[in-house]
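Input.
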Amino acid sequence: MFFALIFCTCVCAQTISFEQVLSQGLQNSYDRRIAATQILAADAGVEEARAAYYPQLSLRYGQEYVHVYDRYYSTVAVGDTVYSDTASKYKNSLNLSGQYDLYDFGRRHLQVAYAQQQVTVAGLNVSKIKADLSLRILDLYAQGLKQQKQIAGQTLIVAGYKRIYQLSQDLQQAGRYGRHSVSEAALALAEALTRLDELQAVAAETLSELSTYTGESYSEDTHLNDFTTLSLVVDDPDFEQLPAVALLSEQIQSKQLQLDLANKDYWPTLVASASIGMYGSDDNSYSDAVEDLSKRDASVGVTFVWAIFDGFATSAKVKRLKLELEALKLEKEQQLSATKTEYRQQQLQYESLQRTAVQRHDILHTLALEHNDGERLHAQQISDQAQFEKSRLDLMEKQLQIDLKQIDYASSNIRLALLQEDFYE
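Output.
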């Protein structure tokens, strides 16, 4: 069949499909792999935030040689330990202390909630990267598929113009064509060859760009399979749940938690603490001072900490977070509007192409009949051969435009599925 013959491809060429390219592109994406690692980092951040619910223990050991100039009035310190023993000697201390926040007006709860929110944000970021990357790969694949169809068609067009040029020369020798007609045929052939070279160069660039996403090498013989059109029910998705919008919603919640946490800085903290100390000293021997830890003390206390004035740092921080929160809300409204507009436009394009699908099929059938009629006339030598070649080229151009529309139709179908997160990896 004429319209099937135009775009036949050598079976030995490398063959790829959109599903294969999409899967490779998603697996090879550094952005997606980095974002997946950020989920693990966010999980670790939750454990870090939960550490505030545990008491903090510390062990300190200090050792010094202290020379006292005024033994009657001096006190000395070894590490964090203050000695009232004012003789010059080797001194050391071992201190175990603990601290626990008894009440902090909900700071720890907000810190954990914020950390958990970052896990959700990181997960949605992966989904957004996947969605953006899928659409980019779809655009590139559709572009490459169109260029492949154009190259295949242009190759046959070049062959047709070569045939016309040869026939023009034969007709010139027979006295039926003038030099002008032969020159026109030569010019048309040169333009067709130039167009073919341009298409091949652009197609090579498209395959090269596609290779950067998949990590695979593609040659000029690589054959792109046609899209598999989905049976898609075109319903409006929940736009709030689409990755780009949902990510901003989570970022708004995260910013709100930051703001709530900053407001807690206006409130005090109640801290319980306890410690036990062991001390030793010796007048002449360092080793004896280390072994001597005979003195003991212990303490238990409660501390009330309230930052009375911090140079307006807290109020400035709260103001900044409020403005950032407002900016995120506006950004979400903008993204939601842009997403709805993009989806509506894609939906209208898909529905338009769907309505004309039957018409395109009928046109292809008509083109095939016209070609078959031309073949019969040509075989019976009823029509002029040169005129037949021109008519055949015109039919190929029309069929190429139909095939390109078919690619747009399938691509639009898949794009809607990707926007609805209803496509397969």
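The longest helix spans residues 107-173.
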